[in-house]
Design a protein that fits this description.
Length: 198
Amino acid sequence: MKYLKERVVTEIIIKKSRFINVLIPISEESEILLNLTDLKKEYPKATHYCYAYILGPNGQFGGSNDDGEPAGTAGVPILEVLRHNEVTNILAVVIRYFGGIKLGAGGLIRAYSGGAADAIKVGSFYQNIKAQKYIIHFNYDQINDVEYLLRDFIIIDRVYESSVNFTIAVKEENDFESIKHHFFKIKKLEEILLAIDV
């Protein structure tokens, strides 16, 4: 699952209706109402504030609201875009200022799903990946060799004292087994959660 880094706002105009598409990172359901209240102040007097959200490490919790649009034409299409893009801990709100021309059910579905998809394209995301943290101790004359061996790993910290200590994150234990024997001393630390850009 992917997580949104920061708030995103895009806008599209369809048959004179203005659709403002907002993505907001959230971590719990109680944040939905707070964000909707803020958006209603930021974008006052809009005709509809339709939204969908997904929560949980596996995206297991979700919901949507059509906010007065015909049932199933706004919130559900937004939710489907979120699910299709495998994002979680996210609130997507599409704010509509009615332009006087009715879009019909199909047009509404396309407008709301298109607005959410437009915002997703602009958004910046990361993935949380469980990893094991290790400290590797070695001599200065081994730096080039160690850096070469660790080229596929994430070096979190480098400490240069009487010897060199690298702290690395290893996603898969099997990946690390093949190079472990090269090092002078390795200390296994706690499991961590890595945020990797996608």
